[in-house]
Every structure is written in C-alpha cells, then in structure tokens.
Write a structure and sequence with these properties.
408 residues, 24 strands, single chain, Dna Ligase, domain 1, 30% helix, D-amino Acid Aminotransferase, Chain A, domain 1, 28% strand, alpha+beta
Length: 408
C-alpha cells in the first residue's frame, strides 16, 4: 500500500519504520531526518497543512495520524468528507484527549473507574476545589498540553502555583497510589485489538522526580500486566468507552493499577510517545493490515504478532528541556549506536539536518530503542547504544524499565 504518516516526531518515525519493514511505500508529512530514511517526505509548505490534498496527490490508500493536534482539529472528518481512507477518531471523539474536563465527565457518566475529581472554570473555582482534597493533589489543564499539562502538588503553595501555571480551566483530582500502565487498542468503532501493555516514565529525573515531560522512556514487556488485568481493563474501561462513543482509531488509556483495580488517569486518542517506539520494535507483523481493516470498519480476521523479547526505549533530551530547549547542538554517534548494537533503532524526534550534520531541534531529540531475550538484557542493550551518542546538554534517565525488573 501507499501509506501517508502525518507527523514529525519519534512516534511517527517508529510508525513509518514499521510500515516500511512490512513492505509498504510510506510517505511522511512533514516528517524528520529519520523518517526521510524510511519514507518519502512530502513538501508540507506546498500543501500548507492540507493533508487531504497531500494524500490525494500521492494516491494514498491509507493515512495514519500520529500527533493529537490534527485529530483535535478534525482532520479525520475532513478526510472522510473527501472519501479518503484514514485511521483515527472524529473531532468529537478526540475530545477524550483534547478536553480533560470532557473526558472526566464522560468517565463519570459512563461509569469508567477514575480518580475522584472536581472541575474548575476559574481561579476561584480551583481554590474552592482544592479544599475538597488532601495532599498530594493532581492539577490538570483542560486542553492539550503536549504531555506537560499535569502537576502533582504536595502542599498548598505548590497547588496554588500549579493553578496559576495551568489555569483557569482545570481538573482537580485525587492522587492515585499504584503503578502506571499504558494500555492502547486499535478500534474500528465496534471491535478492538489490544497492543501489548507498556510503561511510560513521565518525570525528567530518575526515581520519578522532577517535573513532568512528554515522556522520558518506556518499555514493552508481556509481564507489565497479567491476563486477568488485561481482561478487566477491556471489560471495565475500553469496552464501555468504545460502545458509548463508537470510537475509531488508537484509544490510549493511561492507567493507575491501584489496590481497587485499574483506574484511568487519562485518555489519549493516538499512540503514545515514547510508548510507540518499543511497541513497534517488539511488533512482529500485521500492523498495516490491522490499521487498513480498522479504517474500513472491519477488524474481523486481523491480528498482531509479537516477538517474545522485551523492548526498551530511552529518550535523549536537549539542554533546557522540559523548559525551553536549546537547538543547534551537533549530534554524533547515531550510526555507531545502531551499527554496534544489532537490532537497535534510533528514532528521531527533535532533529534537523544542516551543513554541519545532524543537530538538535526540539526538546526530546532521539529515542534509542533495543530488545533483549529478557528485560534486564533489553535494558543493558539500550543503554549500551545510548553511550555511543553525544550532543552538548544531552540528558536521559538511567532507570527506564527498572520497575519491571521485579517481575523477572
């Protein structure tokens, strides 16, 4: 097939790479230097964001949307109006991610387990809501925030600062105790095929310290959740959400595995980043076929094949991230990391090619991804590859996957 992948980050590089490995002709818009190695890039300036016109120009048989912003803006509706095959949710369905208030009230209405919450539409509302919770408390911005619209406040002063930083339209909710899990499914509006569960690492520093980021790394391992957990997640969270909305696309449930069972921290309406990188690395086949069938409203007969080896992705970030990242630092060692560590993939997220070579051009720069016959080996293989790469100000967490070691 001719497949158009929309986006230009690490998630989209991983998607494009897997589709190309499966033998398809892949196009990227706008893409990045890594995507350019596995796909033909489309001149985004020529189409000025009109991705439907870009899809028509190449005769795309399927379009896959990576980032949340085009989905929230209704790209799927526009494609469908022009009878173009696209995999993703409608603008209405995308509110599960684009509005935290909408999502939380939806979960309460449908009966999907989630943290107790109060919505706030003003700073005064937020101040009143905070009095209903003990600390720590979670403060969430209502709209899209690139994974950085959540602050865990441990006392009144931190909570007040969080409200001022994220407000005035907020969700104030109880802090859930447990272990986080990312659970993603492919849906055709009625049926779902789940991916293997993954675990993301949100904060900038080891041991879950520091401010939240877009994600500092993730691992994919069949031991992340049990088969009983998987069925409970499907029955109490995924199935009610799909049944109620007719949702099509990737439905991502960010979960907390609490003593009372899985509860939803947030819904996303696309593949996670960096969860996609270890998912695509571990996926053994059936990706394009499953997406095509889902876009046609018929997942019957589709399936995903998985390698037994766990996979790990470590994100390398630029100086200044998660604040204002510095661009223009020269990156070395990418080819060496891939060449000297068999099976390693270095997915580009925030990079650009200049006369000097490959440079940083974003907060999250690269996602170094590798596998191993067990999780400890996968972790060692990934960090061995990380050590081959260098740029000024490079930062990464050194404990990606560590929580999973207790299950081995």
């Amino acid at each position: 097939m001719k497949i158009l992948v929309i986006g230009g980050g690490g998630r989209e590089h991983a998607i494009a790479w897997k589709l190309s490995v499966e033998g398809h002709q892949v196009f990227g818009a706008p893409g990045n230097p890594g995507i350019a190695r596995v796909a033909q890039l489309i001149d985004a300036n020529h189409y000025v964001g009109d991705y439907a016109a870009a899809a028509e120009s190449i005769g795309a048989e399927l379009t896959v949307v990576g980032p949340e912003t085009p989905l929230a803006e209704g790209i799927v509706d526009r494609f469908r109006e022009r009878s173009l095959r696209i995999f993703g949710p409608s603008q209405e369905q995308a509110q599960l991610e684009s509005s935290k208030i909408y999502a939380k009230e939806f979960m309460r209405r449908v009966g999907i387990p989630t943290a107790r919450f109060v919505r706030a539409n003003s700073f005064d509302d937020a101040a009143a809501a905070l009095r209903e919770f003990s600390f720590p408390v979670v403060v969430k911005a209502d709209g899209l925030a690139a994974g950085k619209g959540v602050i865990i406040a441990h006392d009144a002063s931190e909570a007040s600062a969080a409200v001022q930083a994220l407000g005035p339209h907020l969700v104030i909710e109880e802090f859930l105790q447990g272990e986080e899990v990312s659970f993603i499914v492919i849906s055709d509006g009625n049926n779902v095929i789940p991916f293997e569960a993954t675990q993301d690492h949100k904060t900038i520093f080891d041991s879950d310290q520091g401010p939240n980021t877009g994600g500092m790394g993730a691992y994919c391992d069949g031991r992340v959740v049990t088969s009983d957990d998987t069925q409970r997640i499907l029955d109490t969270i995924i199935e009610p959400a799909i049944r109620t909305t007719g949702f099509t696309g990737f439905l991502y449930a960010g979960l907390m595995m609490t003593a009372d069972g899985p509860k939803v921290i947030e819904f996303n309406v696309r593949l996670g980043d960096p969860e996609t990188q270890p998912l695509m690395h571990r996926l053994d086949g059936g990706f394009a076929d499953t997406l095509f069938r889902a876009a046609n409203g018929n997942l019957a007969g589709a399936s995903l094949a998985w390698k037994s080896d766990p996979s790990v992705c470590v994100v390398l970030t630029a100086a200044g991230y998660p604040g204002k990242p510095r661009s223009g630092d020269l990156i070395t060692g990418v080819e060496k990391a891939a060449a000297e560590n068999s099976g390693t993939q270095v997915f580009h997220a925030g990079t650009k090619l200049t006369a000097r070579g490959l440079e940083t051009a974003g907060g999250r720069v690269l996602g170094v991804t590798a596998s191993g016959h067990d999780l400890p080996t996968a972790i060692r293989n990934t960090y061995a590859a990380v050590e081959k790469i260098h740029f000024e100000g490079m930062h990464y967490r050194r404990d990606i996957g560590a929580k999973g070691l207790k299950r081995w």
